[in-house]
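Hi support team,

I submitted a single chain yesterday and got back a structure, but I'm not sure I'm reading the token output correctly. Could someone confirm the output below corresponds to the sequence I sent? I've pasted both exactly as they appear in my results page.

Thanks,
R.
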Amino acid sequence: MTYSIKTFEELTTIELYEILRLRAAVFVVEQNCVYQDLDDQDQHAVHIIGRKDQNIIAYTRIFDQESAMEYASIGRVIVSKSERQLGYGHDLVKTSIQEIYRRFGSKTIKISAQKHLEAFYEQHGFLAIGKEYLEDGIPHIGMLIPFVV
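Hi R., thanks for writing in. Yes, this is the structure output for that exact sequence:
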């Protein structure tokens, strides 16, 4: 898999369409969850796009702490259903963490993880914080990688 990392302004219309199609396929159709994916945050994000054979099969968006929340964050973590179990998710999260540090500096990173993926994110240094909660009807847990001075 190869990665491209782009701001919203750098995305082509074709890339944006493919990203939104993948997000809808996973978060709306596969997870049977009706929610507002277009949340006015894409314009402030840095988009990490994973391609295999020219097709977008993996994606995240990252934010600096000033953009969306009090911490840097990773969101909309996706690997297409047909490409899961091949290690791409781990590579995608690792790339996202590295890009946050490269682009924004060393800082705490916070995510809102689907509860069933807690152990997956723990493998990347995330620690669960707080209690489980529902987000769009799906159990989630807050997790972070603390910034250590």
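A quick pointer for reading it: DSSP finds three helices and seven strands in the chain. Let us know if anything else looks off.

Best,
Support desk
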